[in-house]
Amino acid sequence: MQPSRIFVCVWLMSTLIGATQAQTLKEALVAQDKHIYDAIAKGDANTFSSLLTDDAIIVFGNGVMTKADQVKQFTETNAGRLESIAFEDEQAYSPAPNTAILTYNSKRDVVDSSGKHTTYALRESTVFVKKNGKWLSVFHQICEPMKQ
Q1: What is the DSSP annotation of 30-98?
Q2: Domain edges within the chain
Q3: Backbone angle region of 26, left / alpha / beta, with phi > 0 → left and psi within -120 to 50 → alpha
Q4: Domain 3-143, CATH number (from 3.10.20.580, 1.10.10.10, 3.10.450.50, 3.20.10.10)
């Protein structure tokens, strides 16, 4: 086999292996973020807490919340609730070993404390770190997409 053909074969194999690993990473991160949102929808503070690092932060349009702030909301009776969430256009990146970023568009249906239903279209990003073989959220950001 000629050297150029060998190079093309090796390049193609490494590209396909990389794509398979990226798909597996994306699937794992999407499943983990959905697990977090499932805990939120069920009001399960223990599961939610177990899926974040102790120093995790969540960034909203109106500020920053720590993990403790977020967990506290599970006990507040006047807080709204998440009815459902759908993910679209998920993308996963791994900028360093044991670090990964998931970005996606979401549509979420929420009910506020007065019982009013609202649907939001949002852009979200989560940074995960892998600890003891498990992906944990260390940073999450939620923002409204820019109007075009």
Answers
A1: HHHHHHHHHHHHHT-HHHHHHTEEEEEEEEETTEEEEHHHHHHHTT-TTS-EEEEEEEEEEEEEEEETT
A2: 3-143
A3: alpha
A4: 3.10.450.50
Contact present, 132 and 111 (Cβ < 8 Å): no
DSSP code at position 10: H
Q: What is the pLDDT of residues 37-48, one digit of tens each?
A: 999 888 899 999
Q: 110: which strand partners?
A: 82, 118
Element (H, E) at 5: helix 3-42
Tell me the pLDDT of the chain averaged across its residues: 84
Contact status, residue 88 vs residue 107, Cβ threshold 8 Å: yes
Angle at CA 103, nearest 5°, toward 126 and 94? 75
How far apart are alpha carbons 141 and 51 in whole angstroms?
A: 16
Inter-residue contact 140 to 56 (CB < 8 Å): yes
